[in-house]
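User: Modeling request: complex.
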Amino acid sequence: MSPDGETADPRLQELVEGIVRLAAGDLEARLVASENGDEIDAVITGVNLLAEELGHIHAELEERVAARTAMLRRTQVELELMAKTDALTGLANRHLLSERIRDAIAATSDAARVPAVLVLDLDSFKAINDTLGHSAGDAVLVEVSRRLLSVVRAEDTVARLGGDEFAVLIDGATEEETLAIAQRARDALQESVKIGSETVWTTASIGVCIQRAGYSPEDLIRDADIAMYQAKSEGRNKVRRFHPDMLDAVLERSRITSELRSAAAGGELALLYQPVVELATGRIAGVEALVRWHHPVHGTIMPDLFIGIAEETGLILELGRWVLQEGIAQLGRWKAEAPDLANFGLHVNLSAAELMRNDLVDDVRETLARHGVEPRRLVLEITETVLMSRGAGEEQILHRLRDLGVGLQIDDFGTGYSSISYLRSLPADTVKVDQSLIRNLESDPRQHKFVAAVLQLIAAAELNAIVEGIETEGQASRLQAMGCQYGQGYLYGRPVDAAQVLERLRGAVQPR
Amino acid sequence: MAPVIVDGGKGSVELDDGGYVHLRWLPKVDIQVEDARAAMATVNEVCQDQPHPMLVDMASVASVSREARAIWSIPCSASRIALLGRSPVDRVLANFFLGVHIPPCPTRFFTSRDDALAWLTTGQAGPTA
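Assistant: Request completed. Predicted assembly structure:
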């Protein structure tokens, strides 16, 4: 009944009920229209149609939400993968490596087969990046990844920790198996890598740490890293297993690295000069510049303690640049103070990385010009190992240096692997014979004969000889008699600072 | 020509002498998507793919499903469509079609056959839907 007492159409009541059901969320609710086809039926039909539209929109919305949720889930999986892998190589990153190590440690049940971690650092990678560019460096990293994956087992994990540092989780192996995998990695990486027209070598120093009781993933990586640095300091391209004694050396090394970065800017580096003497006359023909680090706390540090680190960290380029600038500037000052010393030269050591520096020749030319020094007064000393393994790029730089008029000297002759036939083709003017060859010169007739033969060989290659490490008059006179032109050593004085060089030149030229 | 029965038997299509195509739905039928699709195919067949104005007799149709309504959004041989109904229910149904879907040609609802035919043949607007 309606409020005014009239009998209401029952369809209206049904309509109210239907709308209530729809409002309650039952979108499937439908009303049945009568056959009257009147306005009430029209309303019923309209409500049905609206309910149908609403149901459709609702379903569509749910479908979209489901699709978006699935997309978000996929993106999340991709992001997780990205967060755990290295973008360049696709290898695991440090985060994923730690996870895998943790799982491997937890799953260890056989004390004879425990997890182990290798940390690998490429030797001289920075030089590749610096000279051939970052895309070449990236190509090398990708190739290294491929090779590492080829030497590990399916259950092992290869990771890139960053830069040129990689790691391998050996997921349960005997000590012998672990060391064999490390050795395989070393062997695989020492093969040359072809990058476009260039061939580069990327040996690696490898540290090994085998799981011990109570070790966390971080401990394993840290100790493998320490062993890697030990391998590097022992001459690179080596595999070393972690030993607790290695920790002290690492702390020292890390301190030197950080302090060396600011040493040049802080005025802590200085050059000393050791005379190069013409044996026949005793005349000082020049000096070799030798770098010293005057550390504010630790006093004077000799180059053998920091040059190796400088080479590994790439600081050698800055250090070399500083030595070249400072040495040539000093030569310019000597020239101004003593114009009569027309044939006085400066010897500067050049590292392998510097020889790959594209701007080396321009730098040398500009520095010489800036200080008014003739190119012939500069002699660049390059070790025979560097000269023997020179690539096309370095060969070109050596020729450009020679064209400039700068002298080139083979350093440490007799300590590397020079073959005799190479001696004639090396782009050099003089050869410095290593001091180890003359140690028993006076007492051992066979050594005497051997040194004589070496000097004859150098003469036959039309090169001048200079012998370092001369300590006695006897050595000097014998070498002179054998035709050696130049000598260096404590007999002629220890390295001195710049101020003392002119005093020495003006004073006695005879050996002390 | 004789009316062609739409597959499913819920309607027929005929090309009228007046030059328009005439789709007739039977009273009280529920039109599903397959009925709409069959009707459209028949219209195209009867028109031989030549555009013709179309009169749709939908008086007393019980219901038209959502999917069936959507079928008439697809262009066919109809160049304009007059929906002819009688009751308020027809009007609601027709306007749901017009409001929810965008017809491919001019489409209007009429309750007067004469007005519908006039609009179909001359394009002159009669009473609005």
